[in-house]
Amino acid sequence: MHEDLPFSPAAERNRQPILEQLLQRLPPQGHLLEVASGTGQHAQHMAPALPGWTWQPTEHDGQALPAIAARTAGLPAVRPPLRLDVTATEWPGPPQPAWTACFDAVYCANLLHIAPWPVCAGLMRGSARVLRPTGLLLTYGPYLERGVDTSPGNRAFDQSLRERDPAWGLRWLHEVQAQADAAGLVLAQRIAMPANNLLLVWQHRAAAT
Ligand SMILES: C[S@@+](CC[C@H](N)C(=O)[O-])C[C@H]1O[C@@H](n2cnc3c(N)ncnc32)[C@H](O)[C@@H]1O
User: Fold this and answer.
1) pTM of the predicted structure, to 2 decimals
2) What pLDDT is stored for residue 170 in this prediction?
3) Cα-to-centroid distance, 8 and ligand 1 (Å)
4) Which of 16, 100, 108, 157 is most buried (CB neighbours < 10 A)?
């Protein structure tokens, strides 16, 4: 049915392990904002498994929006996808009204290493703005960690990313944490995922104390 749409084999592999974590960690209902929805495969797979949740897909690449809409058509909880650049000062940006403290979760997979470093500050600042006081930011992907041996697979992936674009590359977790800290978010949970990826759960500092 969706054979003609852009397809990510990685999203197909990681969608179920990530969903299993979301099911354990999200409350029974709420509003979720997905940042960098890509092909829309995560929205298509996960939204129907989270029946108490609405799911707002977004993408920086406006040309990706029709495919996300096509993939999620007929899923009542999934809102029409919107264009969103995380470095914008307001989300989602004109002409849409700005979101403030209206989401219970922000979910973002595989963005920080496939985008320039300032995208990290944008993601943290914007998430802090749009999350309710008890909301969670969930980021998924490979990271570099001090004191943890980087797997050969992640080392090779980092090198291939930098060859494709010198502004890309795996991010150091402590540097991501510094950006989160500046935005008022703290790391609440670090969950090891298949293939040397991490699911990180961030929350407002005030909610963590
Ligand atoms: C590797 S894809 C990940 C897609 C999807 N989340 C997944 O895991 O399959 C990275 C995505 O980040 C998006 N992106 C890049 N820069 C961005 C920005 N400044 N704001 C929001 N999204 C951005 C790209 O358009 C692309 O769709």
Assistant:
1) 0.98
2) 98
3) 12
4) 108
